[in-house]
Amino acid sequence: MSDRPIIDWPAWTDSPPGRYVLAWEQAQLDRVVSDVFGYHALQLGLPQLDALRENRMPCRGLVLDAASGASAPYTYPPVQAQPQPTPSDRYAPDGRATVWCDFLDLPFEAQSVDLIVMPHTLEFTRDPHRLLREAERVLMPEGQLIILGFNSLSLWGARQSFGKMAGRPFVPAAHDLIAFTRIKDWIKLLGFELERGRFGCYRPPLAHEPWLSRFAFMEQAGDRWWPIFGAAYMVTAVKRVRGMHLVGPIKAKKPVLAPGLTPAATQKTHHPRI
After folding, report:
1. What does the DSSP 8-state code read for residue 93?
2. What is the spatial distance between Cα 114 and Cα 142, in angstroms, rounded to a whole number?
3. Tens-digit pLDDT profile for residues 128-176
4. Which fold has domain 9-239?
5. Is the dihedral of CA 56, 51, 192, 66 positive or negative?
6. Is the pTM value of this prediction over 0.85?
7. Local structure of residue 248 (DSSP, 8 states)
8. pLDDT of 15 over the 90 cut
9. What angle do CA 19, 20, 25 make, to 5 degrees?
10. Which phi and psi angles does 119 have, rounded to 5°?
């Protein structure tokens, strides 16, 4: 973990800029995860967001890492005081089912999860490449990975860089912010296919609500004129497996008939697109 100053997640998410960013991220997640189907979905870190609340999978879990600042304010139950964890220890204070583990060694079988959401998780882990490899390992073929992060190529990213040098970071992150283009390169190397990318939060990095409100007009302007410079981004990718590429409807060969025979009526087969 970096020895640089780190803003406390709970305190920041209760600040005007924190509420502003989380509201945008929650809205994006609600829209995207509602269309992802399967059986198992995981959210890694940042319990201030309920990333899976609009998802309809039967098994949804919040995974927290005691070593990650992105899991605050929830803390692992003390082992000495309670050697046998009670059922309540496996739930977050808001009632969500919770798994405590090391993000770099996820306790899930390979190809067992249909959806993984990582809200700012890569900005706190000591090894983001390894975490992405773990996510790729546990995801099913055609499973989806959603990553949220702060955009280093933005006014917020610039203020974060200068603020860290002065010992006053603007956003909570244990390490340097990861550029959107770098995320795309990393997931492509792991065999993921980028499905969509979106930027948001175009207002300047201001700490007070009145000033943030004054620049509300920049949301539509930024989305149209400088979309890649939003303060936050969301990446949605699909795990592709070699040999499982879909090529569309398969044309059936006409059967070779014996002389004097006519083909029976057949029903056209539609091949669903997964």
Report:
1. T
2. 8
3. 999 999 999 999 999 999 999 999 999 999 999 998 888 888 998 878 8
4. Rossmann fold (3.40.50)
5. negative
6. no
7. -
8. yes
9. 95
10. -85, 100
Inter-residue contact 1 to 164 (CB < 8 Å): no
145, exposed or middle or buried, with CB in 10 Å at 0-12, 13-18, 19+? buried
Q: Is the dihedral of CA 159, 161, 166, 172 positive or negative?
A: positive
**Residue 129 identity:** H
Q: Which two tokens stand for residue 209?
A: 């609500």
Nearest C-alpha neighbor of 205 from the set 165, 128, 251, 151: 151
Amino acid at 245: H
What whole-number distance in Å separates Cα of residue 156 and Cα of residue 205? 5
Distance CA 110, CA 89 (A): 26
Q: Is the pLDDT of residue 90 over 80?
A: no
Instruction: Please choose, from the candidates 133, 131, 52, 132, the residue with its C-alpha nearest in 3D space to the C-alpha of residue 92.
Output: 52
For residue 144, how many C-alpha atoms fall within 13 Å in the half-sphere facing its CB? Answer: 23
17-33 pLDDT tens trace: 999 999 999 999 999 99
